[in-house]
Design goal:
There is one protein chain. This protein is of the alpha/beta class. It has one domain: Rossmann fold. The protein is about 40% helix and about 20% strand. Strands 2-1-3-4-5 form a 5-stranded parallel sheet, with helices on both faces. β3, α4 and β4 form a beta-alpha-beta unit. α3 runs parallel beside α4. The longest helix has 17 residues. It is globular, with a radius of gyration of 14 Å. Bound molecules: 1,3,4-trihydroxy-5-OXO-cyclohexanecarboxylic acid. The site of 1,3,4-trihydroxy-5-OXO-cyclohexanecarboxylic acid (DQA) has 10 residues, from loops.
Length: about 150
């Protein structure tokens, strides 16, 4: 099984940006945690991050051609604005889980809409960085149940 973990804008600033909301761990620490977790489960994982909407669309499309089995995506602020990222996910048909480090449901009104949630089969929020591992578990269960 191979999984793409995709992070959007400003998630490369983890550990620096608003630590009261996003914690003290860096993006590099997040990637290390995900890679170790996946290694322990014999899952191939690729972690990518971009601050650019079009690059995120390109990575999602490439996942189709690379025959990726599942996508974990935190689109950052593009969650609340990007029909293009939603359409890219829909184009691939790859099972996807949406992750937010913070509990967006208890934040500003403009964070209450998520375009990718129209496609993702689950949304995890407010679990900090562990939410990514939870999302990987959900992808694994979903793919396992479809075989
Ligand atoms: C976020 C929540 C978004 O509203 C915000 O724009 C982010 C991070 C989260 O992980 O909690 O950049 O997706």
């Amino acid at each position: 099984m191979n999984i793409l973990v995709l992070n959007g804008p400003n998630l490369n600033m983890l550990g620096i940006r608003e630590p009261g909301i996003y914690g003290n761990e860096s993006y590099e620490a997040l990637v290390n945690m995900i890679e170790e977790y996946c290694e322990s489960k014999a899952i191939d994982v690729t972690c990518l991050q971009s601050n650019h909407e079009g690059a995120l669309v390109d990575y999602i499309q490439q996942a189709y051609f690379d025959k990726v089995d599942g996508i974990v995506i935190n689109p950052g602020a593009y969650t609340h604005t990007s029909v293009a990222i939603l359409d890219a996910l829909k184009s691939t048909g790859i099972p996807a889980v949406e992750v937010h480090i913070s509990d967006v449901s208890s934040r500003e009104g403009f964070r209450q809409i998520s375009y990718v949630s129209y496609y993702c089969f689950a949304t995890i929020m407010g679990e900090g960085l562990d939410g990514y591992l939870h999302a990987i578990d959900l992808i694994e269960e979903k793919i396992g149940s479809e075989i």
